[in-house]
Amino acid sequence: MPQQFQQRPVSRHQGNIDMVVFDMDGTVVDTSGDLVITANEVRSHMGLPTLSEQFVHSCVGDALLPLIEKLFHDTPERIQEAVPIFQQTYRRHVLGNTIPYKGIDRVFKQLRSAGIRVGILSNKPSELVRIPLYHFNLSPLLDFIYGGDSFRERKPSPKPIRRILIHFGIAPDRCVMVGDAPSDIRAGKEAGTRTVGVSYGFSSLQDLEQAGPDAIAGTPLEILNPITQWNGPDEYMSPEDCAL
Question: What three-state secondary structure class fits 188?
Answer without folding.
Answer: helix
